[in-house]
Specification:
With 360 residues, the protein is an all-alpha fold. It has helices at residues 21-51, 76-90, 96-122, 130-151, 176-194, 202-219, 222-228, 239-257, 266-284, 287-293, 295-314, 324-330, 335-355; strands spanning 159-161, 169-171. The longest helix is centred in the first third of the chain and has 31 residues, at 21-51. It is a multi-pass membrane protein.
C-alpha cells in the first residue's frame, strides 16, 4: 500500500525510498515485529481467558509435557496477523505472487484455526478429522499451483528447475500441479509435525523464510539471475517483503514462545507458515531447494512416516517416539538442548540452500 507514495516522488525525496524492495522489506520486518510486541500480551490474555484449560496434552507424550497443561494455543494468530498487516502495508498490491502467498497462508491458517478450536472446545487432541484437513489443503494447494503456473514466464511453465545444474529444466507437463500440491501440503504438514517443543518450529521457519526471501529477490531481478545463472521469474522479488514480515512476526512470537512458552503456535500458525514456505518455493521455481533449506521439517515428517510404516509391518518401533524430537526427549535430552541443536541444523541447511544459487 505504501508503495503508491512513490507517485508523490520527484525522484530525489523520501517518497522515492518506497520504490525499493529492500527498504520496504525492512519496513515490513519492523512493522511485524512491533505488531507482535504490541498485540502479543492482550492476545495471550484473551486466549487464556477463552480457552480455560488451554491446549490438550497428549497422554502418550513425554512426561515433561504435562507441566505445560493450561498453556493457551492459537498463538499463530499473532504471527498471521503481523504477517498480513505488514504485507498489505508494504508490498505492491498489484503483484500476483504477493496475493498467491497470502492466499495460501490465510487459507491454511483457517484450517489450522478450525482444528485448534475443535481441540480446545472438546479438550481432545483429535481436532478436525485428518482426512478433512488434507482434502482442504489439497484443494488450496492445487489452486495455488495453477495460479503460480499462470504467472510464470512461458519457458518456465510446468518446468522443474534443478539446483546446481545450470539451465536444466525437467518438463513435468500436467504433473507439475500435482507435484506443487505435494510441495505445499507436505511443507504445511511437516512444519505442523515439527511444532512440538517450545520455540522448536518458529526459528527454523524464520530461517527458511529469510533464505527463501533472498532467493525470491534474486530470481526476481534480471541482473542477479544473469550473474548467478538461475532462472528469472519476474515479480517474485516482491515476495522478499512477505518473507521479511514472516521473519519479523516470527521473532515477535518467539518472545512469548521461548521456554517456558506463554502461548503455543498451534495448527493456526504451523499450517499457515508451512504452507507459505511451500508457496514461495513453487512461485520462485525452487521446490527442491526448499527440501534442503527445510531439511529439518523433512526429517521430522519422514520420522513419522517411517515409524508408522515400520510399526504396521513389524509391530516394532524405529524411534522411541515420533516425530524425532520426541525420540531425543525419551533419550533424556533436555528440551532446550534439542531446540537449540535443531536451530543450528536449520541454519546449516539454510546456508547450503543459499549456496545452490552460486554453485552451478
Amino acid at each position: 500500500m505504501l508503495y503508491w507514495l512513490t507517485a508523490l516522488s520527484d525522484g530525489g525525496d523520501v517518497f522515492n525510498l518506497f520504490r525499493y524492495i529492500t527498504f520496504r522489506a525492512g519496513g515490513a520486518f519492523l512493522t511485524a515485529l512491533l505488531f507482535g510486541f504490541i498485540f502479543g500480551p492482550p492476545l495471550i490474555n484473551v486466549l487464556r481467558r477463552r480457552q480455560g484449560k488451554g491446549q490438550p496434552i497428549r497422554e502418550d507424550g513425554p512426561d515433561g509435557h504435562f507441566v505445560k497443561a493450561g498453556t493457551p494455543t492459537m498463538g499463530g494468530l499473532l504471527i498471521v496477523g503481523a504477517l498480513l498487516t505488514s504485507t498489505l502495508l508494504w508490498a505492491r498490491l498489484d503483484n500476483p505472487f504477493v496475493w498467491l502467498v497470502l492466499f495460501v497462508t490465510m487459507s491454511f491458517a483457517a484450517i489450522g484455526f478450525a482444528d485448534d478450536y475443535a481441540k480446545v472446545r472438546k479438550q481432545d487432541t483429535a481436532g478436525v478429522p485428518g482426512k478433512v484437513r488434507i482434502l482442504l489443503g489439497l484443494v488450496i494447494a492445487a489452486l495455488a499451483a495453477w495460479w503460480a503456473t499462470m504467472y510464470h514466464p512461458e519457458p518456465l511453465q510446468n518446468q522443474l528447475a534443478l539446483p546446481v545444474f545450470k539451465n536444466v529444466l525437467i518438463d513435468m507437463g500436467l504433473f507439475f500441479i500435482p507435484f506443487s500440491v505435494i510441495v505445499i501440503v507436505g511443507s504445511a504438514n511437516a512444519v505442523n509435525l515439527t511444532d512440538g517443543l517450545d520455540g522448536l518450529a518458529i526459528m527454523p521457519v524464520m530461517i527458511a523464510a529469510g533464505t527463501l526471501g533472498v532467493i525470491a529477490y534474486a530470481v526476481g531481478r534480471v541482473d542477479f539471475t544473469e550473474y548467478l545463472d538461475v532462472h528469472y521469474v519476474p515479480g517474485t522479488g516482491e515476495i522478499l517483503i512477505f518473507s521479511a514480515a514472516m521473519f519479523g512476526g516470527g521473532l515477535g512470537f518467539l518472545w512469548y514462545n521461548a521456554p517456558p512458552a506463554a502461548v503455543f503456535m498451534g495448527d493456526t500458525g504451523s499450517l499457515a507458515l508451512g504452507g507459505a514456505l511451500g508457496a514461495i518455493a513453487v512461485a520462485t521455481k525452487h521446490e527442491i531447494v526448499l527440501a534442503i533449506v527445510g531439511g529439518l521439517f523433512v526429517a521430522e515428517a519422514l520420522s513419522v512416516i517411517v515409524q508408522v510404516l515400520y510399526f504396521k509391518r513389524t509391530g516394532k518401533r524405529v524411534f522411541l517416539m515420533a516425530p524425532i524430537h520426541h525420540h531425543y526427549e525419551k533419550k533424556g535430552w533436555a528440551e532446550p538442548q534439542i531446540v537449540i541443536r535443531f536451530w543450528i541444523i536449520s541454519l546449516i541447511l539454510a546456508m547450503i540452500g543459499l549456496a545452490t544459487l552460486k554453485v552451478r
